[in-house]
Amino acid sequence: MVPEPMSDTQPRAEPLPVSDAGAVARDVIENVGRVIVGNEAAIEHLLVAMLGRGHVLLEDVPGVGKTMLARAVATSFECEFKRVQFTPDLLPSDITGVNVFNQKTREFEFRPGPVFANVLLGDEINRAPPKTQSALLEAMEEAQVTVDGTTHKVPNPFFVVATQNSVERDRTYELPAAELDRFTMKLHLGYPSEQEEHEVLGRMVGDHPIAELDPVATVDQLVAARRTTSEVTVEEPIRAYVTSLARYTRENAQLGVSPRGSIALLRAAQARAVLEGRDYVIPDDVQQEAEPTLTHRIRLGRGEGSAARLVEEALASVDVP
After folding, report:
1. Distance between CA atoms of residues 73 and 65, nearest Å
2. Residues 305, 253: contact at Cβ < 8 Å?
């Protein structure tokens, strides 16, 4: 199916009641848990980013379930899922699509790339050079792709899960700050505990659990739940709190949290409120989402500690409304 050129108006789903939107998210979290053992906090954060209209970067060692997590979420929402394996020879057009000349019609036709999906997995994104990595920037920020001067809208919803290899640094390309800033969160899964790994081995006897995973929500429900999230009330003291946290990082780091990062934290707090069954944000929502939302946006000088530590200091130092 060829995507339509970008139009000025897009249909908007009616929001769900907060209780229903929260129930949809919790059902998906439980369903993903049938495939992913442990990592409950990471699964919750990923759903928070999804409800907050953001994107997620998963960084970890190979083989801990990053790809399977993305597939499980897409399957749970009955979303169209596509995967791109990033390699050094991957071209931007391999992601966005390309215009091809049709000999019969004597016209160019657009052949969409894998970016035209509800959930796009960019596997090992840091193995591709910066030019190819940047092919995702327009889609992530503006929900559209421009090829040869024509702009095409990506599906709604559109959610990017990119994985990043945390080893073999000499064989990868570091993601530029501008691209990192477009990811709502950066999450880590880590190795399972002994008990969790034992359960994983038990589940893998026979068919993989993902083969038997059924959807528990529809794409329309996801769109409606996102609309619900966007309408969660954020009072002025909460907005001032988020601003103060961002300013603290700017005053104590070479590169602090950008305004885009502040917006991401606010949206994540709204999604956390929905998950908790509330139609308003409280400081605890901000605090729960601060570390995965802010840390990857901070750059410190040599010997100045870690970004995670700076976020902890910000949370401890800034007055809570």
Report:
1. 12
2. no
Query: Whole-angstrom Cα distance, residue 163 to residue 85?
Result: 10
Q: Distance of CA 59 to CAs 67, 233, 242, Å?
A: 11, 32, 25
Lookup: tokens for 186? 């950066």
Q: Which two tokens stand for residue 13?
A: 């789903």
259 upstream amide cis, omega within 30 of 0:
no
Mean pLDDT of 5-22: 70
Range in 160-164, 246-250, 288-292 the model is least confident about = 160-164
Distance CA 137, CA 183 (A): 10
Its pTM stands at 0.89
Place of tokens 């599906």: 155
d(CA 257, CA 148): 34
> What's the pLDDT score for residue 204?
73
**H runs (alpha helix) in the chain:** 18-32, 40-51, 66-76, 93-96, 130-133, 137-142, 177-180, 194-203, 219-230, 236-251, 259-275, 283-294, 307-317
Give the tens place of pLDDT for each residue, 155-192. Answer: 999 999 999 877 766 677 888 888 889 999 999 887 87
Q: Any residues with CB less than 8 A from the CB of 63 and at least 6 apart, and which?
A: none
Domain ranges of the chain: 18-223, 232-315
Tell me the C-alpha distance between 121 and 246, whole Å: 29
**Which residue is listed with tokens 């083969």?**
211
pLDDT at 77: 92
Q: Which of 194, 199, 177, 197 is nearest to 186 (CA)?
A: 177
Half-sphere exposure of residue 60, counting CA atoms within 13 Å on the CB side?
Answer: 18
Q: Chain centroid to CA 252: how far?
A: 27
Highest mean pLDDT among 62-71, 142-151, 236-245: 236-245
| Fold exhibited by the domain 18-223 | Rossmann fold (3.40.50)
CATH class of the domain at 232-315: mainly alpha
HSE-CB for 3 with a 13 A CA cutoff: 27
